[in-house]
Each structure stands twice: as C-alpha cells, then as structure tokens.
Amino acid sequence: MAVDSQRVEPRTLDAEDRVGHFREVQRGYTEEEAVAEANRCLQCKRPPCAAGCPVGINIPAFIDMIARGLYREAIEKIKEKNNLPAVCGRVCPQEVQCEKKCILAKRGEPVAIGNLERFAADWERETGSMSLPYPGDCRFNIAVVGSGPSSLTAAADLAKMGYCVTIYEALHEPGGVLIYGIPEFRLPKNIVRQEIDYIKRLGVSIKTNTVIGKTKTVDELLESHDAVFIGSGAGLPYFLGIPGEHLNGVYTANEFLTRSNLMGAHEFPSVDTPLGIGKNVAVVGAGNVAMDAARTAIRLGAENVHLVYRRTREEMPARRDEIDKAQEEGVQFQLLSSPEKVIGDDKGNVMGLSCQRYDLGEPDHTGRRKPISREHGEFCLPVDTVIIAVGQGVNPLVLESTEGFEIGPGGYLITDEVGATTRPGVFAGGDVATGTDTVIKAMGGGKKAALAIHECLEMRRKGKRVGASGRC
Q1: Taking Cα atoms as reference points, which of 314, 144, 307 lies closest to residue 233?
Q2: CA 192 to mean position of chain CA atoms
Q3: What are the pLDDT digits (tens) for 436-449?
Q4: Cα dist. 380→309, 386, 451 in Å?
C-alpha cells in the first residue's frame, strides 16, 4: 500500500564543488531511498502516468517491484519496453511526460519515476545482474543508419524479434547525441557504453567510421539488406546569420560539445584535442544544448559565461532543473537580449558581442509573446568566445544521395504514421523525421518503426503485399 509521504529528492553535488570537474552532478537513490519513494505510488487502477511514456513502460508495475525489493524483476519489466533505462533515467524530461500525469502531481509532488528507473538500471549494472532475452533464429537482415537513441532502440527491438541487425555509424564511436551531445556531468559516457554493450549482446553488429551517403549509399544497403531504418538524427547546426560569425573563437554548440564530450578536449593536453576557450564566453540560445554548452564552458575554466536569450526565463525551452543548475553554477542570464554582431580585433579573433535589448509584445503565431526592439537598447558584451546554440537541422548527406524520398520543410524526411518513407523498404524515426526533440521521443519513433518493419517482413515472408503503396 502506498505511503502518503514527501517526495524523496536525489542528492546533488554542491555547485561550488561540481564546477571544478566533469563528474556526474546528480547522485542516484540508495536502496532505502528508492523503496521509500516507490512506496509513495498509489498504484492507480487506470494509471495516467503510463499514458505519458513515449515507449509504453508499465510504470506502476516496475515501481511496485522496487517497493517490494524485487529489483531484478523491476529492471526486466522496464526493459520489456525500454532498452536504454540508465540513459532515460538521467536525461528524459519526466516532469513534462509521465510525472506530469501522475495523480500526486496535482499537489506538486509526483512520484519520481525517472529517478526510480535510474535506480533499477544502476542496480543491474552495479550488481552485474544483466539478463538477456533469447532472440531466436535470425531471419531477415536489417540495416540501421546512425547509432543515436532512435537507432539503438529500433536495432534492439528488431534483434529481440529475431532479426540480424547491423548499425552503420559515421563517427568512430557509437551512441550519437548520447555520446557527443550530452556532457559527462549529466550523462557519464561509461553509462552510455554499457547500455550499447547490452544492445550488442542482443546480437546487434555495429560498424563505425561508415558514412552512409559516402562510404555506402542507402541503395547499396538495400542490395544486401531486407529493410533499412534511418535514424541519423539532426546534427547540422544552425547559425545566426549575423556579421562576424567567421571569426576565431566562434563555435556552434555541436562542435563545442563534440570536441569536449566525444574527443576528450576537457582533458587536454593529456589528449590531442585542443579546445580554445577564453575567460569570457557568450552562449546564444536557451534550450538544453545551450545549458550544456554554458555549464561545460564554466568547467573548462571560463570566468564569466553569459547566456543570451531574447525572451524571459519563463519562456526558456530548457528543462527547469537544467536552468536552475546553470544559474547555481554561475551562468549569467542576459535575458530579453539578442546578438546583432560578433566583433573582432585586427587579427580576426572575437573581442565582443554586440546585442540589442528587447521588451515582450503581443503573442505571435507560436503563442509566445513576440520580442520587440527596445529604443536605445544596444549594448556590448566583452567576450572572447561565442557559442551558438540555436538549434540543428538534418544533415542532407544521407537523403540527398538517395532518390525517391519525400523531403519536408526544413529538410526533414517525411514518413507515415508508422515511420515508413516514400522509398519502399526504408523506414525512419527520431530527429531526422520529426525535427529536434527529446531522447525518449526519438526512442518512441524507433520502436514504432521497428514494429512496422517486423509486420512488413512477416507479410513478405508469407508472400503478401503490404499496404496500398507497397512500401514494404
């Protein structure tokens, strides 16, 4: 029976301590804390929390198992739907998904579903109690393009159904945005690698340093595979389109975080990846990526980090917790401000960021109040590094090297409701099809497409045509 008590919050490193290193900021539950939090669950007969999970985890079931000390059963229940629980327990925005729908959210204290998921996954890893489903005989061969959360999910689900799956990754290490995009202090890379190791143990093969669109094309993959899943993400950074973006000291957040996360620049000179960063940094944007870049800059030794955003704190798209942590760590918010020009010295190096102050007017087509330039609102930030974090688009390499795809606005790959593209035998999911979104939403797209691939190939095995379009 649920215990009516206060939500158990996980321990967090003090800001003064954590800015000096890249160790994980938030600590996991102890067994005592996990059991206490799990016992807060009301075990609703019609659990609204489950409806908020993009991958369909039976949330009350695994929480009940934790409450009873059945940790192995809990992680097995989670893995029926989620192949990356240690990742999701750390970076998924549960506060706007499953926890938002929790009955206890009405009083401001939903059950900490994400923290409990993390506890179960960490218990499995720390105790070495990993169990693997038996996938059965290998049937068809599936190619998966990219190795981010959508691709890893699709590959794992297909392997569990008995398919031979090969992932093709452009970089030298698999993981996609989980490896190159999210800092160590939020998502330790050993956690990602261990999650990927689980997927490899399911029988999934991963080929790195293979750029689909160059090393191989989708057409070539179809010659040797029965279906192709594209989960190549949205890794093409957007720029501001302002003067001075060419100057030395201007980075996109994509480059900045990749150098730090994947290439170990934060360990220079013990690694051969320099990352020149000055003492005064401006980060343009207010999403999770902007917060990651700002917090990384502080850990790399910046004395002043300014986050420039043209609306207010309330409109920031980043998670509230990440905004709070950035502010605790000393990030200075330059709100109602937007960059106009990057200023350089006579040697081509950044020496300042010219900005404009704004006021908020009436709501625009997005429903948010539109920023309006303030008279005499010009000012300049004296910075030597500028990091642009205003979103990303689809890298066109895969799509432009293949005929027959329908491409939508922004260069995204158009799919139907199950992830099928307009090219027979090719499916897609995650950011390449939806635009930049959360890890768990990308995983949901991967699961949906994996099931569609399975249904199509089963129909093909039986000699039946699938759907009016014959896309399978």
Answers
A1: 144
A2: 12
A3: 889 999 999 999 99
A4: 14, 13, 53
